[in-house]
């Protein structure tokens, strides 16, 4: 069913206003100093979604990720718990794990002078350690990074005093999605990975967030998505309304690239969530997309003012993956959306340096909720500087 303009809309995040709102100025997307402040005051202070817990499926499995300006090493200890550390040897600062992922047999050993740490970060061995009584093994342990698990992912926070995870991550997502979407009913933590695609996007991370938040572009660049979600052709994104799920087209059997049937409904969701798509941004770097038979989760890792790595996971019921079912048509829909979106962001990035964008652009009424993101961003930077 398409939504007609005469139908009442669900309650809006920000009421539509007649006036236009200015965007951020172009330099916010190009200036290395602003990017440095964002790394310092946003990505190194807030909870960031780092890795999928199940990717580290046994003790000694590790993954390194770039959070802000730090390399963070996440591993599973002998007790089966996830641990996060700064990926820096406490001897003379060499990077401990140089691979993006891997498996150690017993301990983590620095490739420089072979200082060795156990999977809880304790310094357990070093050449001639017994002849160096001044080395305090406790003091020279790896620097621990706070870690929490939610939705089957490990979230880490580099702040000395991390904000409340319950409020700033779970509470914020639940509030933005609303009760109607009830994210916990999708039981994301029990799902299995069907596909992962890593996108190297030549654009500032904020262009990617802003693009994800609006659907003014959907009719122009997302033909496959608007076939399945015709109300997106109106230009109003699901994120515009708290708890509003975009309804599937009558002819769409599933959330697939050609509208063909997907898989069985996730067991926990309710009838009201069936045949609907919900989306939420968990600031600063996660997008969650909920459909009846799978969940799509994006994690962003900004590496430069004009470059962002986006890792996108498609998650299904374990029995779907175990059965060897072909997820290609299911994956292809949002993969195309990703490529279409990231192409648009890459086309926009060079213009951020133009004098035409020195004072920025404008947000039309259906994009006004992006203004809240800009307010949040500038408040984070101002509060942090203060
Ligand atoms: Fe790691 Fe020397 S820097 S052992
Ligand atoms: Fe899009």
TrEMBL record:
<keyword id="KW-0411">Iron-sulfur</keyword>
<keyword id="KW-0001">2Fe-2S</keyword>
<keyword id="KW-0408">Iron</keyword>
<dbReference type="Pfam" id="PF00355">
    <property type="entry name" value="Rieske"/>
</dbReference>
<keyword id="KW-0479">Metal-binding</keyword>
<dbReference type="InterPro" id="IPR001663">
    <property type="entry name" value="Rng_hydr_dOase-A"/>
</dbReference>
<keyword id="KW-0560">Oxidoreductase</keyword>
<dbReference type="Pfam" id="PF00848">
    <property type="entry name" value="Ring_hydroxyl_A"/>
</dbReference>
<dbReference type="InterPro" id="IPR015879">
    <property type="entry name" value="Ring_hydroxy_dOase_asu_C_dom"/>
</dbReference>
<protein>
    <submittedName>
        <fullName>(2Fe-2S) ferredoxin</fullName>
    </submittedName>
</protein>
<dbReference type="InterPro" id="IPR017941">
    <property type="entry name" value="Rieske_2Fe-2S"/>
</dbReference>
<feature type="domain" description="Rieske">
    <location>
        <begin position="49"/>
        <end position="156"/>
    </location>
</feature>
<dbReference type="InterPro" id="IPR036922">
    <property type="entry name" value="Rieske_2Fe-2S_sf"/>
</dbReference>
């Amino acid at each position: 069913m398409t939504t007609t303009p005469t139908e009442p809309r669900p309650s809006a995040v920000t009421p539509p206003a007649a006036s236009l709102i200015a965007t951020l100025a172009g330099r916010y997307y190009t200036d290395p100093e602003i990017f440095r402040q964002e790394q310092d005051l946003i990505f190194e202070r807030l909870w960031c979604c780092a890795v999928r817990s199940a990717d580290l499926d046994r003790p000694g499995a590790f993954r390194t990720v770039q959070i802000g300006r730090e390399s963070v090493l996440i591993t599973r200890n002998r007790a089966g718990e996830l641990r996060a550390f700064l990926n820096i040897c406490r001897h003379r600062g060499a990077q401990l794990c140089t691979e993006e992922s891997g498996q150690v047999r017993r301990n983590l050993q620095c490739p420089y002078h072979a200082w060795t740490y156990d999977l809880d970060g304790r310094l357990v061995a070093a050449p001639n350690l017994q002849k160096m009584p001044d080395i305090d093994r406790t003091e020279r342990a790896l620097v621990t990074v706070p870690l929490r698990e939610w939705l089957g992912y490990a979230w880490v926070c580099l702040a000395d005093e991390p904000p409340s995870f319950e409020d700033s991550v779970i509470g914020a997502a639940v509030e933005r999605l609303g009760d109607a979407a009830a994210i916990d009913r999708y039981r994301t933590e029990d799902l299995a990975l069907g596909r992962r695609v890593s996108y190297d996007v030549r654009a500032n991370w904020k262009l990617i967030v802003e693009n994800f938040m609006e659907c003014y572009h959907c009719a122009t660049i997302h033909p496959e998505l608007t076939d399945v979600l015709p109300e997106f052709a109106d230009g109003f994104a699901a994120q515009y309304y708290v708890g509003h799920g975009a309804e599937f087209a009558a002819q769409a059997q599933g959330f697939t690239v050609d509208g063909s049937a997907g898989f069985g409904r996730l067991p926990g969701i309710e009838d009201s969530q069936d045949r609907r798509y919900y989306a939420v941004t968990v600031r600063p770097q996660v997008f969650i997309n909920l459909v009846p038979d799978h969940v799509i989760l994006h994690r962003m890792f900004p590496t430069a003012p004009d470059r962002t790595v986006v890792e996108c996971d498609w998650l299904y019921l374990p029995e779907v993956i175990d059965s060897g079912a072909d997820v290609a048509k299911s994956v292809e829909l949002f993969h195309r959306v990703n490529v279409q979106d990231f192409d648009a962001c890459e086309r926009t990035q060079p213009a951020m340096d133009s004098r035409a964008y020195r004072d920025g652009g404008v947000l039309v009424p259906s994009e006004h909720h992006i203004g809240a993101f800009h307010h949040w961003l500038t408040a984070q930077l101002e509060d942090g500087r203060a």
